[in-house]
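RETRY 2/3 - previous attempt timed out on the joint model. Re-submitting the same 435-residue input unchanged.
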Amino acid sequence: MNKSFSFIIALLAIRNNLFAAEAGMPQLDPKYWASQAFWLILVFTVLYISTAKFYLPKIKNNLDDRENKIKNDLDDANKFQELSESKLKKYEKILEDAKKEVVKIHIESKNLLDKDIQIKKEIIEKEIEKEILKAQKEISDLKKNSISDIQKISENIASNIIETISGDKLNESSIKAAVEDISKKNLGKYL
Amino acid sequence: MASNPMQQFSVHKIGPEIKIAGIDLSFTNASLFMVISASIILLFLFFGTKEKKIVPDKIQLISEMFYTFVAKMISDTAGSKAKPYFPFIFSLFMFVLFCNMVGMLPYAFTVTSHIIVTLIMALFIFVAVTIIGFAKHGFKYLSIFIPSGVPTVLLPLITVIEIISYLSRPVSLSVRLFANMMAGHTMLKVFGGFVISLGLLGGWLPLGFSIALTGLEILVAFLQAYVFAILTCIYLNDALNLHH
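RETRY 2/3 succeeded.
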């Protein structure tokens, strides 16, 4: 479309110029054809040689360098990522182990403490029991003693009373027997 | 000068007359603009490759973009076998592109608007491609004129058509570029002349056209350079990879 359009314009331009006073297309004047050909070949050869030998290898090297650098950097990044991932895994494992250890230590110390408390409790209970037994014995001893003391006192009182009333001294053993008899009968009343 | 739109294409001598063996090889305005275009390319590449930065600056980036653009164009159309011809295609593309673009500047001369220039380039490509074809494949290269899958009855006709189309390649290649450039510049000149002749009252419309056409012509300048280069690649592909 564009091509045919420009072609029509070109043809129009050519026709207009053919009608114009001056000569038509300067392009068709062969006067400088040789010159243009010569200079074109010269200039293009210089351009070709300098780009081919000098500039294009430079650009190519630079592009390759960049590609290599990017590739290396990416490889490095991947390596470091793997490294960091493995480190993270290690760290997580350590953390997990530590947690397990904590739980273990907790349970152990709890058991130990429980045992200790149990032992101490038992010892104290035994001691308390012992003390109780001792106290009970003391109480019963005291009771016994007090009974015999009471009997003696009652014997004395009884013999004194008898002496005072009758003026006779009674057999000590008979008084004792009588007091014992009475106290046995009445002991339940007071104890 | 403004009166004749074809005046801009006239070639005149600059400096002394150079005659070698009776042939006039004088330095002309056409030669001057060839030198200017080539110098711009070389300067551009010089600054583009001056510093080898990992992160490129603008001019380095643009030169690298040209490189990858042409490299991709060649590998897409002609494959990996065409790699040795990369510098030629690159210089060709850059030369045509910069000649076209420099021609867009006011008062500049458009080198590629001359049939002799484009014809020499096209003929060189045609001859070179033919030589490459015969060098790579010998007489088998002639099978390019016999397309596969054609009925035997049609074969003589098709072969004649193929030969004609092959031989007309330099003509079509050169005329396409030359005619596009000439037509565009003539058109710009004609509309520019209208602006002057219609004056302050009526000149605005052709001025607007002129501006729009300048944009179009810049596009055409790039497009024709691209077409010239890619057709060269396609011809090269025919010569390098015989069975298409």
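Chain B touches chain A through 59 residues (CB under 8 Å). Closing ticket.
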